[in-house]
Amino acid sequence: MPFIAMIAALPGLAFLLGAGLMAAGFLAAIAGFFMAMMNTQQKFEQSSLVFVLGIVALVVGAWLMRLAP
């Protein structure tokens, strides 16, 4: 995979990208959780999607940080 080779060549970029994704994922997961709890104008499906995308961003960010040597 060319993406993995590029990340392996730039370890600092992989770490920063992973840390940024983890931070964004954490905020999205918290936002999705509170959107579902407050039951505001947003639909439940939208808040669930935000929560799940936050968890996915957390996992991908952790994977990128682990990939950096």
Automatic annotation (TrEMBL):
<feature type="transmembrane region" description="Helical">
    <location>
        <begin position="49"/>
        <end position="68"/>
    </location>
</feature>
<protein>
    <submittedName>
        <fullName>Uncharacterized protein</fullName>
    </submittedName>
</protein>
<keyword id="KW-0472">Membrane</keyword>
<keyword id="KW-0812">Transmembrane</keyword>
<feature type="transmembrane region" description="Helical">
    <location>
        <begin position="12"/>
        <end position="37"/>
    </location>
</feature>
<keyword id="KW-1133">Transmembrane helix</keyword>
